[in-house]
Structure formats: structure tokens, C-alpha cells
Design a protein that fits this description.
Elements (H helix, E strand, L loop, with lengths): L1 H26 L3 H25 L6 H33 L4 H30 L6 H32 L2 H25 L7 H5 L7 H29 L3 H28 L3 H26 L13 H34 L6 H58 L5 H23 L6 H6 L3 H4 L4 E7 L4 E6 L5 E5 L2 E5 L2 H16 L6 E5 L5 H7 L6 E6 L3 H9 L1 H4 L8 E5 L2 H7 L4 E6 L15 H9 L1 E12 L5 H14 L4 E7 L2 E10 L5 E2 H9 L4 H9 L5 H5 L2 E3 L20 H7 L7 H8 L10 E2 L2 H18 L1
Parallel strand pairs: 5-6, 5-8, 6-7, 8-9, 12-14
Antiparallel strand pairs: 1-2, 2-3, 3-4, 9-11, 10-11, 10-13
Helix pairs in contact: 1-2, 1-3, 1-4, 1-5, 1-6, 2-4, 2-12, 3-4, 3-6, 4-12, 5-9, 5-11, 8-9, 8-10, 8-11, 8-12, 9-11, 10-11, 10-12, 10-13, 11-12, 12-13, 16-17, 16-24, 21-22, 22-26
């Protein structure tokens, strides 16, 4: 039985990773979209656990029912690969904005996820009918649940570190389908050799004694705090580890490991404990200690662990370092949550009950609480009151859950009298005071951690932190160094700054975007960042309407306050509209056409960012560009390795075969790139661009360029670094980033500690030459441009 549940749990986690990733490609990666997907996913499991015992007669052999459920899950695993993209495209063709769109997203998610998750949620109640409704039976149910969680740990790691890293989503799905088939076959074979005797009719149709409603409330509150804390801890630990796809898999695996260990321990305790309800209550009170421990570890101690993250030169070393820190912080609480489930089963179980309904009811209550905990924490609490207050609320809720469980056994139980009752009452008072103290002691989120993440210890005291904010999707910080340089931080690292080389890149990206098209009236900027790129776009007088697609509402507010002097107050510009949505979802659901689109997204190793670098996304961009439109894209060479840079460049140039690469070098050494892609082949006429720049109304553009050391169109485009034919040899082994594999996030996720930008750039331009016929202009203009390009390439080799 344990082997069956291990396999089932492994397959279920692989599906969860794949299905949510598939749906986010069309429904979006915003907090609202992710919240909807998780709620629907877990809601389907909740319904399945409730409906199966009421719809499937106990007379059917539990192992055969279980086998059929596993086969059904496997069938949906295959169907989803073909159905989800089709349903997703149908959604994007009719989607709009506002509350109606949220309802539509929920309907689409339900169509895709509810059928298979109903079957997943039904597996534990189905097999629950195999055991008797005794304390020993409840213990076995807890062990089955632990086996399921053990498989889930394996599934999380196998999917995140192996299947999706080396293969793609279809391959991962078919592996999960194979596991389902193997589990179903084994269960069916076992059913032939293990006879099953259905319970008497009277017992199957009625419950001998109703379970205590308080226990269902208690286990629901336990689920609420578990998923709420997981949301907060994932945000905090991703700052420590780097917000890569590997980090999310690791954190999930550690939490599942703790739940599995706790469920095993709770199952063993449930066999011998006299009062499971009281034990469940004390478990909830101990969770107050566990959550306070995790809060202190994440906000005070972990960032000062004496390990330089840059010394971790391989994915293995990074994994070892991070898994120890994750275990240190969150494992104690996860163990206690895991123990709560079998203890709740033992507390409600009575002889003669339908064990399927019993386990289904407890599982459903726990899952319903988890749904509310995840949704309320991610969509309401963290973004409005911050992680500190959120954790304080979770501690108080856990204390309330514990007190609900303990009041009856200690104060209302007539068998508890005299000194024992007084001692119990005193302990409850101590627990109330202690829980309040633990909630009060939760530390605030350190600005140093928000700003510098895994490198926080190295930057302590060096910069002044002038702003820290927590949003729905991310935490943002602004710092200032002793020289007055401002830095914008997101995802635990510097994303932009007023440093000369950063300003050069950001303004190059913005100005190339609008100077090449003859009439750039409508422009889309993907990602607000510090607003410098968007600001460079906005000062072009030919731009009549500009849209900034930003996923985090906090970002425009922060940069409009601190970076207005550098971004030309772009957020308050009347021709600029800030659209709060993930850019991919915005483009998929809008019918607007643009003359230019520029993208300044987060680092490619940040989970979810790879969806903005896929070949399919670039094709969507082309569909939203006018015939003479262009796209530009920022690509960094630092905190990146050569395979990841190759993937970014090759994927872009495959979508825009007439494109080119321009470099932002520092002292002649490669630092970052601007990828330029026209929809149709055309020459870049430098004389026409210079004539535009010379007009009085374009004086702000000339001043902006002059501030970054560029004084003419020739100097701007003299940063040319190559075209597809120049880089053919270098890109020969490049891996194209597709929607089906999101390869980039796995390549980039293992290189965030790499600083090989100089070597990467030298290898990239080894065959680059002046591009004959790519630029147009007077002979003397082209001669000057040739000199700039050849000198720049020579200096960098």
C-alpha cells in the first residue's frame, strides 16, 4: 500500500508542476492567475475527497477503485498535453479585463484541472475503505498519507531538477503517466490476491456517531496556516537562495518532506495516545513556536551564515547549501503540520464509520483551509500588511486552532477534575501568553535581504536603504551608495541603477526602439524596472501612446518616487498607460498593434521570466507589431553562463532572422546586450536618424544620449556586435527556448553565481565583422560607422 501511494504522490507532483506551468503560459503568471490556478487545483482535490465516498459504494473492492482512479489520472495526463493549449488559445481569443476576466480564468482553469484533480483527491478515501475504523486503522491512513507525501518529494525534485531541466513538459507528463499505469497495475494485481469483505449495509449507510465539528475546524485552520506560511516562506527563502525554478522545487520538497515525516510520527502516536484531540491541540500550539522559529531564521540568521554564495560553482553545491538552510528554517513546522492529519483522523474516528467518508471529510477540511490560506495570504495579506504582520496572524490562528482542540478535553471533560483541571487551565493560560509573545517577536523583513538577497551579508552597512516595499508578486527596495548612486532592487538583487554603465544600457534600449521605426506612434514596454528604458521611449515626440506592462503594482509607485530624475517622470506622463498584468498575458489577450515593443524583463533565471524569451512568445510579439515594427530585448552577460546566453540570442534571432546584436561594453569588455529585431528586412539609415536627432523637438533625446556618452547616430549604432551569420558557429549548439520546455529558466537557474561576461562576449564576437549592406547612409557616414564598429570589436577581442 505504501509503495502505491509513493508512486501516486510522485506522479501527482509531476503533473502539478507541468499543468500549472502549461496554464500559466496562457492564463498568466500574475499573483491573481497563480492564486486562481492553485485554488482550482486544490479545490478539485477537495471535491474528490468528499464525492467519492458518497458516489462509489463501499461494496466495490478499494484496490480496484484505486487502480481505476490512477488510470483515469494517467488518461487526463495525456489529454492535458493536447487540450490545455487548445483551451488556452480559446481563452486568449475572448479574454478581456476586469472581474469578468477573473471569472473566465477560473472557468478555464476548472475545465482543465477539476477532472483530474477530482480523481487525485479521491485516491486516499478510496483506499481508506481498506482499513478498519479503529485507532490502528487511523494510524495506517496516516502512513498512507505519509507515503503519498514521500512520493511527492521525489516528484518535486525529479520534475524540477531532472525531467524539465533535460527534457520537456510532454516527456515529464509521459513519465508520470507511466507511473500511474504501474501503480494501477500493481493495485489490480493485489486486489486479485487480497480478498475484500464489504461492511454490513447498516454501517455503510449511516455513521454510528458523528465526529466532532471542532476537529474539522481545527484541521481546516491547520491547513490555512500551513499554506499561508508556505507562501510567505517561499518568498523569504527565494530571496536567500535566488528565485530560480530550482529554489521553488527545493522549498516545496523540504516542506513535503517535513509533512511526510510528521505524518509518519503522528500515525505512530495515534496508535497509542489516549486523547488524540488534545494531542492535536498541543501540536497546533507547538506550531506557534515553529512558525516563530522560521520567521527568525529567515529574517535574522540565514543571511549571515558564513558561506559565500559565489563560491558555489555548481548546481550540486548550491543545492547542498540551500537544502540545509531550508531544513533548518521550515522543517520543524512542516513536521507538526504533517502530524496533525493522522491525529485529526484518530480524533474523529469511531467504530462502524465509513472509513472512506471519514478520511475524505478530514482531508477535504484540511484542503479547504489550505485553499483559503494560500489565496488570502498571497492575494490580500502580504501585499497589504507585509510578511511580518502576515506571520503574526498565522501564529495567532494556529494558537486559536490549538485552544479549540484543548478546551473540551481540559475544561469540559467531566473526567478531568481538581488539580488536573487547574493544571490544564494554567497551561492554557501560559500557551495563550506564549503565543502572543511569539507573534509579537516576529522580526520585520530586513531591507538588506530584500535588496541583496543571497549576497546580503557582503553588503551589510555599505549602502543606505531608503525604501523597502512588499507587493503581491515581489519585494522591492531602493538603496543609495555614498556617492549618491541609486539602485533599484527586485528579486533580491540590483535590477537597475543610475550607474553610468547601467544608464547607458537602459537608454540605448529605449532609444534604439523608437529611432529605427519611421513612425513609432504606439510603443509597448515590457517591464517597468527603474523606468529608465520606458522614460527614454517616452521623450520621443513621435510616440503618441505608450503602454508599460508591469506585473507588480508596487514597482511603478516606487520608481516614480525615487527615479523620476532619471526616467523623465515616465509614470506620470499623460501619454503613458501602466497596465498591471504579466506582459505575456497582456499581449495574448489584446488586439492592439504596436510600432515598437521593447522588453526589459527580470533576469532569465527568475522563475517565470523564461516565458518572455520563448520562440512562441516572440512570434506573438511579431503578430502585434505593424509591418515596419521592431522589437528590442535586454540580455545580460553577467550572472549568466554561455549556454543560457546562447539560448537567448539564438531563440530571438530565429524569430527575427534579420535582427542584430548591439553591445553595452564597460572598458571594452562585454557586460550586456541589446537584441534588435525588425519584422521585415530593412536597412537602418543613419543619416535619416541623425536628421531626426538634429530637430529641435528631439533635443531631449540628444541630451539623454549625451548623458551616456553617445553624441550621434553613428556612435549609437557603432555598438554593433553581430548578426546571425556572424554568430553561426557560436550558436551551433544553442538550445532554443520553447513554451514546451522553458529551457532557459533551467540553463540560467544554475548560473546565477557566474560572472563570465568577458569570456562570453569574446566568444560571441569572434567571427563578427562590419555588416555590409545592413546600414544605409552617405559614404562618409558609413565609413565613420565602419571605423566605430571595427574599433569596438577589436577592443573587445
Amino acid at each position: 500500500m505504501l509503495v502505491l501511494f509513493i508512486g501516486s504522490g510522485c506522479a501527482a507532483l509531476i503533473y502539478e508542476v507541468v499543468w500549472l506551468q502549461l496554464l500559466q503560459l496562457n492564463l498568466g503568471s500574475s499573483a491573481v492567475s497563480v492564486g486562481v490556478l492553485l485554488a482550482v487545483y486544490m479545490g478539485g482535490m477537495c471535491l474528490g475527497s468528499l464525492l467519492l465516498p458518497r458516489r462509489i459504494s463501499p461494496r466495490h473492492h478499494p484496490l480496484k477503485v484505486y487502480a481505476l482512479l490512477e488510470l483515469g489520472i494517467g488518461a487526463f495526463g495525456v489529454i492535458a498535453l493536447f487540450a490545455v493549449p487548445v483551451i488556452g488559445k480559446a481563452y486568449t481569443s475572448i479574454a478581456g479585463d476586469g472581474p469578468l476576466n477573473l471569472i473566465l480564468r477560473t472557468i478555464v482553469a476548472a475545465i482543465c484541472l477539476v477532472p483530474p484533480t477530482l480523481l487525485m483527491g479521491a485516491t486516499l478515501p478510496a483506499i481508506g475503505r481498506w482499513v478498519k475504523t479503529t485507532p490502528a486503522g487511523a494510524s495506517w491512513l496516516g502512513f498512507f498519507y505519509a507515503g503519498n507525501l514521500a512520493g511527492a518529494v521525489a516528484g518535486s525534485l525529479v520534475a524540477g531538477y531532472y525531467l524539465l531541466r533535460l527534457f520537456d513538459m510532454p516527456t515529464a507528463s509521459f513519465v508520470a503517466v507511466g507511473i500511474n499505469v504501474a501503480v494501477a497495475t500493481l493495485a489490480w494485481v493485489m486486489a486479485r490476491f487480497l480478498p475484500y469483505t464489504p461492511p454490513p449495509t447498516a454501517i455503510t449507510e449511516a455513521t454510528v456517531q458523528p465526529a466532532s465539528r471542532l476537529i474539522y475546524v481545527g484541521i481546516a485552520l491547520s491547513g490555512f496556516t500551513a499554506l499561508g506560511a508556505e507562501v510567505v516562506w517561499t518568498r523569504l527563502l527565494s530571496l536567500h537562495f535566488g528565485a530560480t525554478t530550482y529554489t521553488f522545487s527545493l522549498i516545496l520538497a523540504v516542506i513535503l518532506l517535513g509533512l511526510g515525516l510528521g505524518s509518519s510520527a503522528g500515525s505512530a502516536i495515534a496508535r497509542v495516545v489516549r486523547n488524540a484531540q488534545a494531542t492535536l491541540g498541543w501540536c497546533q500550539l507547538l506550531l506557534c513556536v515553529g512558525m516563530a522559529w522560521a520567521a527568525h531564521a529567515a529574517c535574522t540568521s540565514l543571511k549571515f551564515w558564513a558561506v559565500d554564495p559565489l563560491a558555489a560553482t555548481s548546481l550540486t553545491l548550491t543545492f547542498e547549501h540551500d537544502v540545509v538552510r531550508a531544513i533548518w528554517a521550515v522543517l520543524p513546522s512542516a513536521i507538526l503540520w504533517g502530524a496533525s492529519f493522522p491525529l485529526a483522523l484518530a480524533a474523529v474516528i469511531r467504530p462502524g464509520q465509513d472509513s472512506g467518508r471519514l478520511v475524505g471529510g478530514v482531508y477535504a477540511a484540511n484542503t479547504l483551509g489550505a485553499i483559503l490560506g494560500a489565496a488570502i495570504t498571497s492575494l490580500v495579506l502580504v501585499g497589504n500588511i507585509g510578511s511580518k504582520a502576515t506571520q503574526q496572524i498565522l501564529i495567532i490562528v494556529s494558537a486559536l486552532s490549538g485552544l479549540l482542540m484543548l478546551v473540551q478535553p481540559i475544561l469540559r471533560n467531566h473526567e478531568v477534575r481538581g488539580a488536573r483541571r487547574l493544571i490544564g487551565a494554567a497551561l492554557l493560560c501560559i500557551a495563550i501568553v506564549g503565543s502572543g509573545f511569539l507573534a509579537w517577536s516576529v522580526p520585520a523583513l530586513p531591507g538588506l535581504l530584500v535588496a541583496y538577497g543571497r549576497n546580503a551579508a557582503s553588503w551589510a552597512g555599505l549602502h543606505e536603504i531608503i525604501y523597502v516595499g512588499e507587493g503581491r508578486m515581489a519585494s522591492v527596495a531602493v538603496t543609495r551608495d555614498p556617492d549618491g548612486i541609486l539602485y533599484y532592487h527586485n528579486a533580491g538583487k540590483v535590477q537597475a541603477s543610475s550607474q553610468a554603465f547601467d544608464m547607458r544600457l537602459q537608454r540605448m534600449l529605449g532609444h534604439i526602439t523608437t529611432l529605427v521605426p519611421k513612425s513609432p506612434e504606439k510603443v509597448l514596454v515590457i517591464g517597468c524596472g527603474a523606468g529608465v528604458t520606458a522614460g527614454a521611449v517616452s521623450i520621443d515626440p513621435l510616440v503618441k501612446h505608450q503602454t508599460i506592462a508591469e506585473i507588480e503594482p508596487l514597482v511603478p509607485r516606487a520608481v516614480s518616487t525615487y527615479f523620476s530624475d532619471y526616467n523623465f517622470a515616465v509614470v506620470s506622463n499623460p501619454k503613458v498607460t501602466v497596465h498591471l498584468d504579466d506582459a505575456r498575458h497582456f499581449l495574448l489577450t489584446t488586439h492592439e498593434k504596436f510600432d515598437a515593443i521593447t522588453s526589459d524583463p527580470l533576469d532569465p533565471w527568475v522563475k517565470g521570466a523564461a516565458t518572455l524569451y520563448t520562440l512562441e512568445f516572440f512570434e506573438v510579439v511579431k503578430q502585434h507589431l505593424n509591418p515596419d515594427g521592431v522589437m528590442t530585448l535586454f540580455v545580460q552577460l553577467y550572472e549568466n553562463d554561455e549556454t543560457a546566453v546562447k539560448s537567448q540570442v539564438a531563440t530571438f534571432l530565429k524569430a527575427f532572422p534579420n535582427g542584430a546584436v548591439f553591445a553595452n561594453t564597460v572598458d571594452g569588455e562585454g557586460y550586456d546586450l541589446v537584441l534588435y529585431g525588425p519584422v521585415q528586412p530593412h536597412q537602418i539609415n543613419l543619416d535619416e536618424i541623425q536628421a531626426r536627432l538634429n530637430k529641435p523637438e528631439n533635443e531631449p533625446i540628444m541630451r539623454s544620449l549625451h548623458e551616456i556618452g553617445i553624441n550621434s547616430a553613428v556612435e549609437l549604432f557603432g555598438n554593433y556586435a553581430g548578426r546571425p551569420e556572424d554568430m553561426a558557429n557560436w550558436l551551433r549548439d544553442a538550445q532554443i527556448n520553447h513554451d514546451s520546455n522553458l529551457r532557459l529558466q533551467f540553463l540560467a537557474g544554475r548560473s546565477l553565481n557566474s560572472y563570465d561576461n568577458v569570456a562570453i562576449y569574446r566568444n560571441m564576437i569572434v567571427d563578427s565583422r562590419y555588416p555590409e549592406g545592413y546600414f544605409a547612409g552617405k559614404p562618409e557616414t558609413l565609413a565613420e560607422l565602419r571605423n566605430h564598429i571595427e574599433q569596438s570589436l577589436s577592443n573587445s577581442r
